[in-house]
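Narrative summary of target 7.
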Amino acid sequence: MANEVPNNTLKRLRNRYRLVVMNDDTYEEMATFKLSRLSVYIGMSTVFVLLVSLTVALLVFTPLKYYIPGYGTRQSRADLQVLKIRTDSLEQAIKYKDQYLESVKKVLTGDTPTQRDTIPIKIEPKEISHD
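Modeled conformation, tokenized:
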């Protein structure tokens, strides 16, 4: 029975059918097509692939790509990258200045946790000569 199922499916794909296009008023046959399910699947797949490739080619090789949200020109992307780098460097500079101002503020208010030198320095007085 396992052998009959694939054979039966393949047989159904290859069965031939006739598609007739008729004029409804005169019953005249306008066109006749001999088709199989396999040929219909192949035809629909071919049409799908052609439509997708035509759409992709239209978007890639024409200026229509600039209307896609988030897609810009090369120049605008390069400008955006330069602006990001500048912004990062400005943020870094502001952070360093804030740290410096905070350190100066601590020194001026006396809140610095510095250790003071408690070793006395011995300074010997110099003799002043009167000539």
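Strands lie at 16-22, 29-36.
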